[in-house]
Amino acid sequence: MAYFKPSRRTVLAAGTASAASAVLGLSAPRAWATTPVSLQLSWLHSVQFAGSYIARARGWWDEDGLDVSLLQGGPNAPVEPPVVSGSALVGISAADYTAAAVEQGAPFRILGVAMQKNPFVIASLLANPVREPADLSGKKIGMALANMPVLQALCTLNGVDVEAIEVVPTQYSAQPLLAGEVDCLLCWETDLPVAMAMEGIESVTMLMADYGYAVHSQTYIATEESLTERRDQLVALMSGEVRGWEAYRADTDAAAALTLEAYPDAGLDLETQKLQAARQVPLMFSELTDEHGFGWWTDQTVEANIETLALLGRKVSPALWDRSILEEVHGG
What we know:
By secondary structure, the protein is α/β, with parallel strands linked by helices. It is built from 15 helices and 10 strands. The protein has helices at 16-23, 50-57, 60-63, 80-85, 95-103, 148-158, 175-178, 192-198, 224-229, 231-250, 252-262, 270-284, 287-292, 299-311, 324-331, and strands at 35-40, 66-71, 90-94, 108-115, 120-125, 140-143, 166-169, 184-188, 203-207, 217-223. Helix 1 (16-23) packs across helix 11. The relative contact order is 0.20. Residues 1-19 have low confidence and may be disordered. The strands form 2 sheets. The protein has a 5-stranded mixed beta sheet with strand order 2-1-3-10-4, with helices on both faces. The protein has a 5-stranded mixed beta sheet with strand order 7-6-8-5-9.
């Protein structure tokens, strides 16, 4: 998962993080008899995982008997190996990554879906906008070549000739777009567009999920063995996640400030984190989650995922998704 880490623009004033703690109702954790478990994050610490930080800070996992360590991910820390080995009870991944691992024999199941809409967008500038897939014809797009299957899937879903698009290999940066080297970028809604906005540059983002690109992102994965042998721990962990993300939704600014309080050495900028936090909300919450609860999915959304994953060369069964843990969490 790509994540843009912008340079600092502001300095967090003394007391801001403490104020966030007050707003979120945080207090010193109570003493509980707890079992140590780990949650493997998919990328570097940021507000992308603020719901987990809130759950930990409020002591909700402690109340349910868990001492949860949040393991930082990154380019050299893949999610799947620690989950397979059992050193992490749960990992945060994406349906395409999980499908690839399952093809190699990994015994994974998807327990919850944090991002109801995939965060991939085509970002462009107002002077030369890409507002729908048809606008890609004749354009130069900057992207990592590893994402060619993603672009191809989008084109197939929308009847666009991918050969009519010039692909320019780029690093994960907005600079090629700003310099006029490309007409648009393939990126996440919550990173390069946010970085441009922090520089006062307005961009147009075409969310690929609105045009049929259905791949569940920021998904919670566990092994079949854990579903059988460590079920109570999974329920407790996911219960904390649900509560944490609902609190995040209620006050994203406070969640951003808490992120900086928790990880003061991560090189994060408060205003950037606030904007990213706000832009995550429509990706993570929907009418479906309003009705059924955070992390939910339906047979119809799974079917759409399977169809898109097939375009990415991944063949999966609906059995990859197991909603029984969430049903227990929300039912309880």
